[in-house]
């Protein structure tokens, strides 16, 4: 009875209080209290209330990223019919792409089914629908969006009252020859799967060739050389994950003969890595990467890629003279690599460029918007996230805040200026290590308690934190940002499994290979003993030529009609 009384009177109330506190903390941190208690985002009472208008408003949202999904969650309300249009059927949690590319977590933990999120919004809105299609053109005068379901051009026409463009951005290769054709990227879920498959495939090839002694030493070194172009947060986190994978999992499963030959090279055209961070923190990150075996090349750029060859030379500023450019070109060197990962920047998607040109905008980096995030030169068209030129950096944090702002504006029927609230910058350096930079509010200085140092010219502006505390903050923050309890449980499970059993080394099956072989029996001998079966000599032709296959089938019917 003592244990039962303790459980009822102490343990259960404590667990309930802890759960409620955690839920309230997550809700507060994510600015999501209006998901439970509706309050207008503006004090302007003259604007029409969404609950009193009899006219149903059709809102079309293009995209399925941070901006689009947060806009959907906030605008879903009475008298709102919302349509989400996206070529991908999931929301991708981009901060976890680096981890998924080396098997620290599964892609399932980084992807949220879009229809589940739309179903949740449908419970609050008049209707919410997902259309898997790729928007190709926008007619702002007639308020129509033209999309296709696939590359064959199966066309769709969608009308709207309000349009939210949140299509994000695509990798920017800056016109460097060969990057698009031979490089790997880290922007979508399939990019992570391709990189994971490439790394494991190269490891297996290198391990097989190593059994021949030094006969294939040059090829093994090429297979095990990974070049990551782009010294921003994504490139640094990927290199940290690769280094952990090499030092913990490859050495365990493939041996030191393979792990010791892996080369990880981080290439950055700027004078230093992590330009968004304070220089002192960037130097700490660089030293940490170098200590883990990563070679960091700053002031270096890729100029040409051809197959396995990557040409690099010292980078030059845009104002460089012809002599300076010639001197840099004379120092160019080519290297053979096993994988080139391009995370050096983003650019506008074709739809965004096309609309910007139609509206007479001259900056093709995105859609220029006003202070309310409305696209200049339009009515009832908004652009948010990476596709918008709003003056804010193209980060997930900005996209999420812009999505919530526009969602509330559409819900309340009120356009108001958007104000970005920078919450800080986080980065994972692997091996229970991280780095954080936060603005110092000066109200309740918790940073002194956890050892955060002063940064910048004005020591009170920014605080920096490194090591295990920053790593814990990184994981905790991004864990709370997931959109469902299922994803949070899945991610936590992946982290625990990676810690206990190591990373996933099962190569993803990206494309199923043909399994049709020459006719053999189950024991591997050719089909010669049964004279009622004809040996097919040209199996490949029958497998690839449907006419030949049909004719052969007809002949078989005639030949074996007795059976």
Write the layout of secondary structure elements.
Elements: H1 2-29, E1 57-62, H2 66-75, E2 80-86, E3 90-92, H3 97-100, H4 107-110, E4 111-113, H5 114-122, E5 127-132, E6 134-139, E7 144-148, E8 155-159, E9 162-165, E10 170-171, H6 179-182, E11 184-185, H7 189-209, H8 217-223, E12 225-229, H9 233-253, H10 256-259, E13 263-268, H11 279-291, E14 294-298, E15 300-306, E16 309-314, H12 322-330, E17 333-336, E18 339-342, E19 346-347, H13 350-358, E20 367-368, E21 381-383, E22 388-389, H14 396-412, E23 425-430, E24 433-439, E25 453-455, E26 462-467, H15 468-481, H16 485-501, H17 539-544, H18 546-559
Parallel strand pairs: 1-2, 1-9, 2-5, 9-21, 11-18, 12-13, 12-18, 13-14, 20-22
Antiparallel strand pairs: 3-4, 6-7, 7-8, 10-19, 15-16, 16-17, 23-24, 24-26, 25-26
Helix pairs in contact: 2-14, 7-8
């Amino acid at each position: 009875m003592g244990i039962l009384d303790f459980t009822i009177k102490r343990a259960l109330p404590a667990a309930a209080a802890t759960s409620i506190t955690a839920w309230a903390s997550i809700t507060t941190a994510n600015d999501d209290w209006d998901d439970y208690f509706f309050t207008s985002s503006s004090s302007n009472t003259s604007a029409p209330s969404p609950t009193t208008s009899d006219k149903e408003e059709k809102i079309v949202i293009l995209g399925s990223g941070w901006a689009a999904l947060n806009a959907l969650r906030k605008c879903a309300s009475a008298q709102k019919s919302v349509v989400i249009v996206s070529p991908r059927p999931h929301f991708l949690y981009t901060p976890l792409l680096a981890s998924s590319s080396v098997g620290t977590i599964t892609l399932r933990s980084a992807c949220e089914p879009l229809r589940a999120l739309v179903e949740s919004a449908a419970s609050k809105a008049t209707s919410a629908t997902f259309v898997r299609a790729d928007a190709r053109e926008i007619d702002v005068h007639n308020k129509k969006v033209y999309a296709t379901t696939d590359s064959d051009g199966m066309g769709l026409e969608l009308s709207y009252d309000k349009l939210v463009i949140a299509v994000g951005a695509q990798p920017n290769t800056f016109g460097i020859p060969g990057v698009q054709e031979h490089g790997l990227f880290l922007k979508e879920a399939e990019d992570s799967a391709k990189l994971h498959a490439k790394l494991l495939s190269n490891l297996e090839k290198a391990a097989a060739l190593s059994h021949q002694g030094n006969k294939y030493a040059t090829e093994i070194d090429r297979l095990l050389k990974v070049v990551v172009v782009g010294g921003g947060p994504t490139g640094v986190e990927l290199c940290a994950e690769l280094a952990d994978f090499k030092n913990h999992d490859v050495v365990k499963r493939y041996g030191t003969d393979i792990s010791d030959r892996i080369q990880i090279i981080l290439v950055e055209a700027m004078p230093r890595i992590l330009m968004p961070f304070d220089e002192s923190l960037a130097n700490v990150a660089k030293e940490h990467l170098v200590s883990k075996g990563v070679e960091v090349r700053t002031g270096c750029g890729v100029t040409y890629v051809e197959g396995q060859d990557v040409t690099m030379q010292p980078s030059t500023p845009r104002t460089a003279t012809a002599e300076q450019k010639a001197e840099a070109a004379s120092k160019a060197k080519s290297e053979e690599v096993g994988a080139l990962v391009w995370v050096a920047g983003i650019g506008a998607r074709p739809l965004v460029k096309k609309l910007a040109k139609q509206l007479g905008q001259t900056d093709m980096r995105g859609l220029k918007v006003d202070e309310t995030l409305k696209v200049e030169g339009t009515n009832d068209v908004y652009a948010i996230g990476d596709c918008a030129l709003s003056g804010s950096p193209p980060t997930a944090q900005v996209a999420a805040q812009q999505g919530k702002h526009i969602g509330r504006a559409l819900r309340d029927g009120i356009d108001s200026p958007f104000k970005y609230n920078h919450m800080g910058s986080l980065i994972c350096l692997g091996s229970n290590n991280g780095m954080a930079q936060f603005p110092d509010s000066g109200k309740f200085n918790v940073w002194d308690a956890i050892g955060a140092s002063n940064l910048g010219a004005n020591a009170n502006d920014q605080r920096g934190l490194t090591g295990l505390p920053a790593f814990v903050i990184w994981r905790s923050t991004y864990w709370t940002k997931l959109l469902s309890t299922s994803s949070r449980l899945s991610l936590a499970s992946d982290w625990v499994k990676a810690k206990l059993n190591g990373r996933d080394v099962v190569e993803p099956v990206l494309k199923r290979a043909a399994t049709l072989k020459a006719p053999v029996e189950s024991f591997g001998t050719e089909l010669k003993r049964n004279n009622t079966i004809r040996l097919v000599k040209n199996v490949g032709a029958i497998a690839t030529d449907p006419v030949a296959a049909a004719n052969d089938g007809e002949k078989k019917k005639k030949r074996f009609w007795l059976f």
